[in-house]
Amino acid sequence: MLGAAVASVTPGTAASAAVPTDTSHAASTVARTAAARGCAVVYFDLGETLVHTDEDARTGYMPGAAAYLRKLRERHVKVGLITNVPSSWGETDAERAAALKNEVDGAWRGSVPFAWGDFGDRVLTPRTEAERKPATVLWERAKTQAQGCRLVYEAETAEETDVAASLGYVAYQTGRPSRPAYLPTGVIERLAHGSSNSPCSGGRPTSSRA
């Protein structure tokens, strides 16, 4: 079950509730402030991007994943997950996230646990089966929560990074030969501050494809 759930591609859910008129000005002010001070949120797929599942269903970090998350943590870069799990795993976002955590932790190997604390409430899973990736709903929901921060999405499949890029994310395909395993943290810092020197083209770093 874990292999299928963690490695599968799930589109997000609609978080398209309209912002009340009396709060729209405040929301836009928050977004402008975030953009001015510079910030980025890095979302990941889970299976075969951050964690690997063996044939015997044991899971652990992909090579370099734990160190990469630590570097982002040290730079105060927020991270999140956009991942497919069965919608039946919970009635609420929090219930499905808790079920995912239990599933991963129950099969985890190694002495370093998965860094769930880094992700906070930014674990986005489908509320219905129709929302499974590559549907766009989860990425759209993440955008509504971004408050003006630059959004990055990292995954092992071109299908997912293509969808994310089409929605305005800086998308990076992980695990490509002769490329960094993950988007370098220095690039993310430049993106957060709107640097014109960041290696992006059409919303996708040029290094994301071979």
Describe this structure in words.
Residues 1-22 are annotated as: Disordered. The protein is α/β, with parallel strands linked by helices. The protein has a domain at 2-12 and 26-151: Rossmann fold, CATH 3.40.50. The chain is built from seven helices and nine strands. The chain has helices at residues 2-7, 21-37, 65-74, 93-106, 137-144, 158-166, 185-192; strands at residues 40-44, 51-53, 59-61, 78-82, 123-124, 150-155, 170-173, 200-201, 204-205. It has a five-stranded parallel beta sheet with strand order 5-4-1-6-7, with helices on both faces. A two-stranded antiparallel ribbon has the order 2-3. Helix 6 links the parallel strand 6 and strand 7 (170-173). The chain is globular and about 40 Å long. Residues 1-36, 195-203 and 206-210 have low confidence and may be disordered.
SSE topology string: HHEEEHEHEHEHEHEE
Q: Could you say what the CATH architecture of the domain at 2-12 and 26-151 is?
A: 3-Layer(aba) Sandwich
Mean pLDDT across the residues is 81
What share of the residues lie within helices?
25-40%
Q: Count of DSSP E strands?
A: 9
End-to-end distance: 32 Å
Lateral strand order in the biggest sheet: 5-4-1-6-7
Oligomeric state of the chains present here? single chain
Parts with pLDDT < 50 across at least 5 consecutive residues: 1-36, 195-203, 206-210
Question: What's a quick, concise take on this entry?
Answer:
This protein is α/β, with parallel strands linked by helices. It has helices at residues 2-7, 21-37, 65-74, 93-106, 137-144, 158-166, 185-192; strands at residues 40-44, 51-53, 59-61, 78-82, 123-124, 150-155, 170-173, 200-201, 204-205.
